[in-house]
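Convert to structure. Protein one:
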Amino acid sequence: MTSPVMTVIRVNLERAKEVAQELEQASYTQLSAYCLEILRQIGCSDTELPVNLQTREQQLNFITGFASYAFGEVLNVQSIH
């Protein structure tokens, strides 16, 4: 039997990977700006990226993780109604 929770997680991860793939062609400046916007949305007021978001790979991982979480929240809210 497949767990419904695992199905949701898999869907979220797949959509998050799609977002990351779309951004792989983005410039470093665009990725940095996107990461800063995510940080602002979650309450951080810094104008520079933290040390752990300096490389392109770190930025893509951060964006993918955030997208997975965000899509999870949307799917969880939809499944309640």
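Protein two, convert as well:
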Amino acid sequence: MPHLIDVTMFWSATGGGVRRYIHAKRAWLQAHTAWQHSVAAPGADGRDAVALPGVPLPGSGGYRAPLNRRAAARALVDRRPDLIESGDPYRLAWSALDAGQALGIPVVGFCHSDLPELLRRWTGRGGAAAGRLYLRHLYRQFDLVFAPSATVYAHLRDAGLQNVVQQGLGVDTGLFHPARRDPAWRQELGLADDVRVLLYAGRFAPEKNLSVLADAVRLLGPSHVLVAIGAGPCPPRGDQVRVLPFEPSQQALARALASADLFVHAGDQETFGLAALEAMACGCPVVVRDRAGLAELVSDEAGVRVARGRHADFAEAIAAALRHDREKQGLAARQQALRHDWSDAMRGLMGHYLRLMCTP
């Protein structure tokens, strides 16, 4: 029975895209294979979890920074996996490589974050160049690197990496479904029927640009409300903003997504865009920044892509989307999401795993 360990720093009690991907993978493996699956992360708990030592990372929304590369590698070696997947490019990625070398097993990386863009924001173009050099140095040591979108794939190839394949993520199209739409949802929030509800769900992190959405809603006027579901250090603020806590129930989240007028996302560093895809699967049209992974997910029929990140541009795009036929646009969004069902994504992922494990 093969044993896969996912190791990542991107693990929080209040969600995140990497956590959702790992949970979806585990559920699929349990339903369709005899594989054993473990998660190794600072703060990980529960069955088949490897809790690695770490300290809270300020401003991260619940992530913890690992303390000791060697100790983490030893913890991985002790579990005797047959395959390791690293979900971040930081210290634990090196621990995964150390453990893989000690055990003589394949190690794959999944590029869930845009490190060069993050460094560019902090330090300018020099930081972006340094980030690309670092990723090349790190990822060339992996047996294979997954890129969740064509944008990430191109960036990694441009950095000089040859061991990269595009491997998209997915959505449970049975769980996230238009049938979850419930008029009582907005009534429970005390919102009148004529209020246009714009929904964001995800981490409240700086790169999500939530202040842009709050300012756009203010510009649109009091008949528009932004409902933000999640947690993190940078929640949106304003008289027309309703902040709700992280929703651990996928069914409850699907109900909210299906019941909103629009899903909105101003982030410009999304390597894929799981939350937007979940909204589309629920038949909810989307307005997103025309950058990175989000730009690839959303067609003109399923929503609106915003070229610039200013709040006035988002306000204009939201107003345009609300003038469209929601039912027609929602159907197009649903059809787009059906092309990314988790079952298809997981079969592709398993193909890569099996080829690596069978390669001498």
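The first helix runs from residue 17 to 32. The two ends are 19 Å apart (CA to CA).
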